[in-house]
TrEMBL record:
A molecular-function term among this protein's GO annotations: RNA nuclease activity
Organism phylogeny: Bacteria, Bacillati, Chloroflexota, Ardenticatenia, Ardenticatenales
Protein name, UniProt field: NYN domain-containing protein
Record-linked InterPro entries: LabA (IPR047140), NYN (IPR021139)
Pfam families cross-referenced by the UniProt entry: NYN
C-alpha cells in the first residue's frame, strides 16, 4: 500500500503549538497526532521541543513532557534563562527589566537537517517564520515539508513566508476533530 508522505518525521515546536491550540480552544491528544499522520506515512520519529523555566516550569508541562517521552515522542528540552536588561526610555530614565529566553529553534533545526536523509516528509508543527530557511534547506535535500499551524487564531500564528515555502500547509483548525481529545466539543 502506497502512503503519500512516505517515511515521515514529526517536529513539534511546543511553545508555538501551545499558543495556537490555546487560541483555537482545542485540547490536543498527542497520541492521535501520531495516528493521524501515520495513516498517510510511515512514522519514523516524532520530536517535541520546549523550553523549561527555572524553578517555574508549570506542572502541566512537566507532566506532558514526561507522558510524551513514554508514548512515542523524543522530547528535547532546554533550560530557559532569566536575565536582567537595562534600557533607557524616551524621557532618558533608566529601567531594568527581567526577561526570560528559552528558544529551541536551533535544536529543532539541527535535528530536522541531520535526519533529512532518513525521511521523505517532515511534518512541522510551527508557524514561526524563523524556520523558512530551514524548510528551504531540507527541501533542497529532497524532503517534502508539511507545515501545521493556523490562520484562524486571533493573532495569526503562521508566518505567511513559512506557509508559502511549505510544500503543503495544513490548518490545525481543519484537522482538530482528528487530533483533539476525545469527547471535546
Amino acid at each position: 500500500m502506497h502512503k503519500r508522505y512516505g517515511r515521515i518525521a514529526i517536529f513539534i515546536d511546543g511553545s508555538n503549538l501551545y499558543h495556537t491550540v490555546r487560541d483555537l480552544g482545542v485540547h490536543i491528544d498527542y497520541k492521535r497526532i501520531l495516528e493521524y499522520f501515520s495513516r498517510d506515512g510511515i512514522l519514523l520519529r516524532a520530536f517535541y521541543y520546549t523550553a523549561l523555566l527555572e524553578d517555574r516550569t508549570p506542572d502541566w508541562l512537566i507532566r506532558l513532557t514526561d507522558w510524551l517521552s513514554y508514548n512515542g515522542y523524543v522530547v528535547i528540552t532546554k533550560q530557559a534563562r532569566t536575565f536582567r536588561r537595562r534600557y533607557v526610555d524616551d524621557s532618558g530614565q533608566t529601567h531594568t527589566v527581567s526577561e526570560t529566553k528559552g528558544n529551541i529553534d536551533i535544536e529543532l533545526a539541527i535535528d530536522m537537517l541531520s535526519l533529512a536523509p532518513y525521511y521523505d516528509t517532515a511534518i512541522l508543527f510551527s508557524g514561526d517564520g524563523d524556520f523558512v530557511r530551514l524548510v528551504e534547506a531540507v527541501q533542497r535535500l529532497g524532503v517534502r515539508v508539511v507545515v501545521v499551524s493556523s490562520e484562524r487564531t486571533r493573532e495569526n500564528m503562521v508566518s505567511d513566508d513559512l506557509r508559502r515555502q511549505a510544500d503543503e500547509f495544513i490548518d490545525l483548525a481543519d484537522i482538530a476533530e482528528h487530533i483533539m481529545m476525545q469527547g471535546q466539543e
